[in-house]
Design brief:
The complex is a heterodimer of chains A (111) and B (115). Chain A is an all-beta fold and 111 residues long. Helix content of chain A is 0%, strand content 59%. In chain A, the strands form two sheets. In chain A, strands 2, 4, 5, 9, 10 and 11 form a six-stranded mixed sheet that branches. In chain A, strands 1-3-8-7-6 form a five-stranded antiparallel sheet, with no helix packed on it. In chain B, the strands form two sheets. In chain B, strands 2, 4, 5, 6, 9, 10 and 11 form a seven-stranded mixed sheet that branches. A four-stranded antiparallel sheet of chain B has the order 1-3-8-7, with no helix packed on it. The model of chain B has no long low-confidence stretch (mean pLDDT 93). Classes of the chains: A mainly beta (111), B mainly beta (115). The interface between A and B is medium-sized, with 20 and 23 residues.
Chain lengths: 111, 115
């Protein structure tokens, strides 16, 4: 099993809908998780980090961490065409202070 | 702060040529990283450094070398370029553990084409 796994998509949602992006992880990662957004041809930029079980909200974004089921998700409310990008899930490796990334999920928001 | 800067933005190499990808950060971060990203894929760690004079291999280090003589700079060296090294290369930095932020900050990337 890979350390961090994501569905590559694309995930298509209509404008104004909730987009739900999911990520599962293995026992080899620590309990620090990050969601990065990457526009085509650009570098990743951090959207959310989450360390504790439960939900963390920041504007239209909510990160959810479920340690028992080993998954982390990102919800985007009121999706906008500008949210169309690849979303990368990342986790700190348990040893070595290194991030491991999922392959990313392509999100397309249609107006 | 300029953050993390990378040069060049784009380069075409012939097979067997060598080059150095430059990375500089002005945030006084101890930890620096080099990743490569192939089309439609996530980021794979090449090398990383936890401070000046200390480097370690990541997931895909073959064909690359690094050095870290200062806190600010972390160059990546390709000695004998191969078509398999065609990719986009990202440099990133972060604070050391225990200093609060675990966030990695990325440079704009270097697009490399090996023909």
């Amino acid at each position: 099993q890979k350390e961090v796994e994501q569905n590559s998509g694309p995930l298509s949602v209509p404008e104004g809908a909730i987009a739900s992006l999911n990520c599962t992880y293995s026992d080899r990662v620590s309990q620090s998780f990050f969601w990065y957004r990457q526009y085509s041809g650009k570098s990743p930029e951090l959207i959310m980090s989450i360390y504790s079980n439960g939900d963390k909200e920041d504007g239209r974004f909510t990160a959810q961490l479920n340690k028992a089921s080993q998954y982390v998700s990102l919800l985007i409310r009121d999706s906008q065409p500008s949210d169309s990008a690849t979303y990368l899930c990342a986790a700190n490796m348990e040893y070595g202070n290194k991030l491991v990334f999922g392959a990313g999920t392509i999100l397309r928001v249609k107006s | 702060n300029a953050g993390v800067t990378q040069t060049p933005k784009f380069r075409i190499l012939k097979i067997g040529q060598s080059m150095t990808l430059q990375c500089t950060q002005d945030m006084n971060h101890n930890y620096m990283y080099w990743y490569r990203q192939d089309p439609g894929m996530g980021l794979k760690l090449i090398y990383y450094s936890v401070g000046a004079g200390i480097t370690d291999k990541g997931e895909v280090p073959n064909g690359y070398n690094v050095s870290r003589s200062t806190t600010e700079d972390f160059p990546l060296r390709l000695e004998l370029a191969a078509p398999s090294q065609t990719s986009v290369y990202f440099c990133a930095s972060r604070e050391a553990p225990g200093q609060g932020q675990e966030t990695q900050y990325f440079g704009p990337g270097t697009r490399l084409l090996v023909l």
